[in-house]
Amino acid sequence: MLNSEHEPLINGFADPNFEEIRAEFTKNFLTRGEIGAACAVYHKQKKVVDPWGGLPRHKKDPALERGYLSVSHQQQKGLLELQ
After folding, report:
1. Percent helix / strand / coil, the chain, rounded to 5
2. Residue 1 covered by a domain
3. In this structure, is residue 34 part of a structural domain?
4. Total of domains in the chain
5. Cα dihedral 70→13→11→76 (10° resolution)
6. Cα 43 from Cα 33, distance rounded (Å)
7. What's the domain range around 40?
8. Which residues contact 9 (CB under 8 A, 6 or more apart)?
9. What is the largest CA-CA distance in the chain?
């Protein structure tokens, strides 16, 4: 988890075999302009990656927590199946 005024607050987990996915999730905030996101990755019906995070708009804003509800403006994105 990163937590300064200008760094994202990232929570969640990644199975050690899938840590690269979590690293790319974090990279979205640090180098690609992401301001808030969550994702889940399942492999063989087991959740292996589940990070969430965001950049607080103000110092007093609470950190995102598991189960945080948000409005989604883009309902469908492409899926990639890794084999």
Report:
1. 20, 25, 55
2. no
3. yes
4. 1
5. -20
6. 28
7. 9-54
8. 1, 2, 3, 53, 54, 55, 56, 63, 64
9. 43
Handedness of CA 26, 27, 33, 38 (dihedral sign): negative
Q: pLDDT digits over 16-40, tens only?
A: 999 999 999 989 888 888 888 888 8
Burial 55-64 (b: 16+ CB within 10 A, else e): bbeeeeeeeb
Detail the DSSP E strand segments found in the chain.
9-14, 36-38, 41-43, 46-54
**Which residue, chain included where needed, has tokens 């994105």?**
77
Q: Is residue 69 part of a domain?
A: no
Is the overall model pTM greater than 0.70, yes or no? no
